[in-house]
Write a structure and sequence with these properties.
Largest sheet: 7 strands, mixed
GO molecular function: ATP binding; magnesium ion binding; phenylalanine-tRNA ligase activity; tRNA binding
Order of helices and strands: HHHHHEEHEHEEHEEEHEHH
Keywords: Aminoacyl-tRNA synthetase, ATP-binding, Cytoplasm, Ligase, Magnesium, Metal-binding, Nucleotide-binding, Protein biosynthesis
Number of helices: 11
Subcellular location: Cytoplasm
Catalytic activity: tRNA(Phe) + L-phenylalanine + ATP = L-phenylalanyl-tRNA(Phe) + AMP + diphosphate + H(+)
Helix content: 25-40%
Family: Belongs to the class-II aminoacyl-tRNA synthetase family. Phe-tRNA synthetase alpha subunit type 1 subfamily.
Bound molecules: 3,4-dihydroxyphenylalanine
Number of strands: 9
CATH architecture of the largest domain: 2-Layer Sandwich
């Protein structure tokens, strides 16, 4: 038998074997094994014949080369058809629940989560406990206990969403203040990182869904110096640099006086840039000494104890950390954005 015939019969036998193996094959794993046996890169039965081609004479190559290739294409088609059949009938390979899970190739924590964990770590080291907010809460906790009774004009400061049965997707994480004050005797040190919602006309700085870290600190003899020291220590640890700070008056019904805590711009070091509106300052944390009414409603005697609170925008911290210019990117689901972190 000449080389020609010999090879033709080998090819035929490979084709027959593959056809009969595929008939019996009932799952994807088995299919992969059959494929590897015939077409595997090193030892596949057909691959070995393909590897012979360079050693043939030119004439032999002209005749045999196309035949081998024909068989290869036939096999590939057969495997593909079988794979498709499995995919459409949803036949799964045997699932072994004792095997460890597969690590996804892509995927990591969202930049907001990364920065939130980092902030939590710093506050934990400073002695703060972490409290989770309710994402849907009631008027009593979101407004009443924060010294904002029904009809108070300050309610207009929050573009609140309401559910049909009068609950609120929380408009700020301050909603946990009352529960925190009631839950333990001072000294109290707690932070509330959480997701908030507002009926915003969105732009590069405003989003309907955003994040805050509320802070509450209550003890005897607490003064404004404790508030300033706490916020500055946190921000210097977070931005890993010495910062200048200042405060300016503001208004929130649950603190008296209401303040805004500003730091020297971490991008331009106070020289003036687009991020700080060329002022050299970043208005970062609204805060203040807790209003006596809020303490009273939380069962804390304002004659004996005092404290302070703040509500920090977490999105803003993330934007400053990574120089992100548009808050709407966070929930855009844009992978080109997310994969950078
Ligand atoms: N809850 C306020 C808001 O969302 C932020 C805030 C301001 C919280 C001052 C505080 C505070 O605890 O003292 O607009």
């Amino acid at each position: 038998m000449g080389l020609d015939q010999n090879l033709a019969s080998q090819l035929k036998s490979i084709e027959d074997k593959v056809a009969s193996e595929l008939k019996q094959c009932s799952d994807l794993d088995a299919l992969q094994k059959i494929k590897a046996y015939f077409l595997g890169r090193k030892k596949g039965k057909l691959t070995q014949l393909i590897k012979l081609i360079p050693s043939l004479s030119i004439n032999e190559r002209k005749i045999l080369g196309p035949k081998i290739n024909q068989t290869k294409n036939k096999l590939l088609t057969l495997f593909q058809e079988k794979e498709k059949a499995f995919a459409s009938s949803n036949v799964k390979s045997f699932f072994d629940p004792t095997l460890p899970g597969e690590k996804p190739i892509y995927g990591h924590l969202h930049p907001i989560t990364q920065v939130c964990y980092e902030a939590e770590d710093i506050f934990e080291k400073m002695g703060f406990e972490i409290v989770e907010p309710f994402e849907i809460d009631d008027d009593f906790h979101v407004f009443e206990t924060l010294n904002i009774p029904q009809g108070h004009p300050a309610r207009d400061m929050w573009d609140t969403f309401w559910t049909e049965d009068n609950f609120i997707p929380i408009t700020h994480t301050s909603a946990m203040q009352n529960r925190i004050l009631k839950s333990v005797k001072p000294p109290i040190r707690a932070i509330v990182p959480g997701r908030c919602f507002r009926h915003e006309a969105t732009d590069a700085r405003h989003e309907h869904t955003f994040y805050q870290i509320e802070g509450v600190y209550v003890d005897q003899n607490i003064s404004l110096a404790d508030l300033l020291g706490t916020l500055l220590s946190f921000l210097e640890a977070f931005f890993q640099q010495k910062l200048k700070y200042k405060i300016q008056p503001s208004y929130f019904p649950f603190v008296e006086p209401g303040l805004e805590f500003l730091i020297s711009c971490v991008i331009c070091k106070g020289r003036g840039c687009a991020t700080c509106g060329h002022s050299g300052w970043l208005e970062l944390i609204p805060c203040g000494p807790i209003h006596p009414n809020v303490l009273k409603m939380g069962g804390v005697n304002p004659e004996k104890y005092s404290g302070f609170a703040w509500g920090m925008g977490l999105d803003r911290l993330v934007m400053l950390r990574f120089a992100i210019e548009d808050i709407r990117l966070f929930h855009s689901g844009n992978l080109r954005f997310l994969e950078q972190f």
